[in-house]
Amino acid sequence: MRKIFFAIITLSVLAGCSRFSNRGTVENPVIGSSNTQILSFEKIELTDSSTLLHAVAHFRPNWWINLTSCSVIIADGDTFALESAEGITPDERFWMPDSGVAHFKLRFPAIPSSAKKIDFSENTADGFMLWDIDLTGKADPTAGYGGIPAELLAKVSETEIPAPVLAVDSATVKIHLSGYKTSMGNKLGFYLNTMSGQVNDLPALDIDADGNATFHGILAGPTIIHTKNIGDIPVRGYAVVAPGESIDLYTDLGFSGIANMIERGDSISPGAIFCSTGTYGPIVRSIRENPEKNFSHELYTGKYGNYHMDGDSYTDYIIGQHRALKDSLAAAGLSPLAEKMWKINLDASLMIAAQQARDILKRNYYSTYGNWGEPIPADSLNITLSDDNLRRIASEVDLNNPAYMYHFPFYTPFNLAKNGKIWDEAGLDGHLTAELAEYIEAYNAASKGKLTDKQLAQLRGLSTPFYAEAVEARRKEIEEFMSKADMGLVTATPDVANDKLLDAIVAPYKGKVVMVDLWNTWCGPCRASIAVNEPEKSGDLSSEDIVWIYIADESSPIKTYLSMIPDIKGIHYRVSPEQISAIRSHFGVDGIPYYILVDRKGKATGRPDLRDHDLFKKTLIEEVNKK
After folding, report:
1. pLDDT at residue 564 above 60?
2. What whole-number distance in Å separates Cα of residue 469 and Cα of residue 472?
C-alpha cells in the first residue's frame, strides 16, 4: 500500500509540475492583432522554466526604438513580467543597424501548459502591444477573427447598381469590431468621404466592451465611412451609406496582425476583412470577392504617362490605357455587379485623367527625378488638351452618368469635380462635373460661414434640387452653431501685411519663449501631437515663460474649429489662405504640424524636427532655462 500511495503522490506532483511543461518551439507564430509593424516575434520557445520570445524589429536604419523593462506577457489571464533580455537593453535607446532589421530575445517565466495564446504588452500607454499570439502552431494566418455574418460572405447575387440617393437626411452606421479587447482602447478613429470632400476631423467614436461603435449624423448624398484606427491599431473597413438608412459594418481586427506578419516576412494575403449591409452593401461585397483586382487608371503612382507628352500623345496614351483596361475587365470573369461597378469606376478615372492631366504629369516628373517640390523647368511640362483632344476622350465615356455621384472606394465625386468645367468649356455637354464643381465650392463656403446669396441662387438653377438643398442645410447648421459659439477664444489677427503677420503675432511676448504651432482640424498628426503635448503644459512644460500660440487657417471648418480649441490651452489665431501662405513660404513649411520656435530675443526659427515629442520637450526646457 505504501508503494502504491507513494506512486500516487509522485504522479500527483509530476502532474502539478506539468502545468509548466516543455512544449517545444513555435516558429513564426500567428499574430492575432497588433498596434505595431515594428516589433514582431519569429519564434517562441516554451520550456518548464521559461518562455523565450525571439523578437525581430523592422525600422528606419540609424533610428532608435525603446523597449520598456515593465514589458509583460499575458497567458490564461495571468501576467508574467519580463525577466531578462539579450541583444537589447530595456529602457535604453536601441539604434537600428544599417539594414533596418534587428533581432533580440526576451525571457519571461514559464506559462501554463493550458495556454493556447499569449498577449505581449510593454505595459505603457503608448507601447508595443500584440494580441492573441498563437502557441499551437495550428492557426490559419489568413483567418483573422471571423465574426462577419455568413450571409455577407456569400457570393453577391445582385446585378444592378442602385441609383445614388441624392438627399439630405440622417444616417446610422453600427460598427462591429471582431477580435476587440478592452486593452486596445475605447476610441475608434474614422473619416468620411462626402460629395463635398473628405471629413477627417470628427470626434472618435466610443467603443463598448463588446467591440461595437455607432456613427450617427446628417449626410448630404451617398457617403463612404472609413474606419481608421484604435490608437495605433489600424482598422481596415469601409461602407457606403445612403442618407436616411441604418446599416451595419463588420470589420476584422485581424488585419493588423496580418500586416504585422507581412512586415515580419510572411507571404500571406488576407481573406474577408470587412463587409456591410445597406443599399450599397452588395457593391462593397463585390469588391471584396476579388480583392486583388483593380481595373482603374493608376493616376497617382507617378508612373502614369510621361511628363514629356503633349496633348495629342497624352490623349492617345490615356485612351489606349482605357481600352486595354476595358478588355481586361471583360475577360476577368467578375460577377455582373462587380463588372458594372468597375466599368463606371474606369470611365470616371479616364475623365479625371483628362481633367487633372497637368497634375498627373507633374507627379510623373517628380517621380522620375525624385526632386519633389522643386520648380519644374518651363520646357519640361507642356501638356495642354485641345478641344479636339477632349472630344476624343469624351467619345469613350458618358460624361453625365448619374452613377458617378455614387462613391466608389477608388474615386469620389470630389475628385471628379476638380477642373470639372473643362468639358463645357470645350463645347461638350459636361454638366455633371461642372455642377459638382459649383456645388462643392458653395458647400465649402457654407462650411466656413461665407456662402453668398448669389451662390445659392445659382445652385437653384442646376439640374437637381439636391445641390441647393444640401448647401442651404449646411448654411443653416453653421449659422445656428455660430449664434451660440464663443468667438472670444479666437484672437483678432493683427492688421498688417501678410509677410509681417507672424512678427506682429509674437511681438508682444519678447522676453518669453514662444512656441508657434501651425495646425488644422483636419490634420490627424496635428491633433495627435496636440493631444500628447497638452498634458505637458501642467507637467514638465509648466512655465509662465512659455507662450503657446496656435495658428490654423480657414480650411479648418469653423464649426469643428470652435468645438476643438476650448480644449487646447493657448492663444488661437484663424488666418486667411493668403496669410498662411505667406507664413509657410517664409519658413519653407513642408507640412503640418509645423513648429516655429521664438526665443527670448524674438528670433523665430522653423523647427520641423520638433515633431519628435522627446526633442520637443527637451528643446523647450533648454530654451526656458536660458536666462
Report:
1. yes
2. 5
Buried-exposed string 45-79: b where 16+ CB fall within 10 A, e elsewhere: bbeeebbbbbbbbbbeeeeebbbeeebbbbbeeee
- Calpha distance 209→167 (Å, rounded): 34
- What pTM, to 2 d.p., does this model score? 0.84
The mean of the pLDDT values for the chain is: 91
Phi, psi of 268 (to 5 degrees): -140, 160
What local confidence, expressed as pLDDT, does residue 22 receive?
Answer: 55
Helix/strand/coil for 259? helix
Cis peptide leading into 593, omega within 30 of 0?
Answer: yes
Q: E strands within 10-159?
A: 24-27, 31-34, 39-46, 50-58, 64-66, 72-75, 78-81, 84-86, 93-95, 101-109, 117-121, 129-134
Q: What is the DSSP letter of 511?
A: T
Contact predicate 522/556, CB 8 Å:
yes
d(CA 524, CA 130): 24
Whether 50 has a pLDDT exceeding 60, the answer reads yes
- 123-149, pLDDT tens digit by residue? 998 899 999 999 999 999 988 898 889
Which residues, 6 or more positions from 295, have their beta carbon under 8 angstroms from its beta carbon? Answer: 325, 328, 329, 332, 342, 345, 346
592, 518 in Cβ contact below 8 A? yes
| Dihedral of alpha carbons 105, 106, 110, 116, sign | negative
β-partners of residue 524 are none
The answer on pLDDT for 23 being more than 80 is: no
Measured from the Cβ of residue 25, the count of other Cβ atoms closer than 10 Å reads 14
| pLDDT for res 147 | 86
Q: Tell me the pLDDT tens digit for each residue of 302-361.
A: 999 999 999 999 999 999 999 999 999 999 988 898 899 899 989 999 999 999 999 999
For residue 109, count CB atoms less than 10 angstroms from its CB and return exposed for 0-12, middle for 13-18, buried for 19 or more: middle
Query: What DSSP state is assigned to residue 451?
Result: -
**Exposure string for 169-181, b = 16+ CB within 10 A, e = fewer:** eebebbbbbbbbb
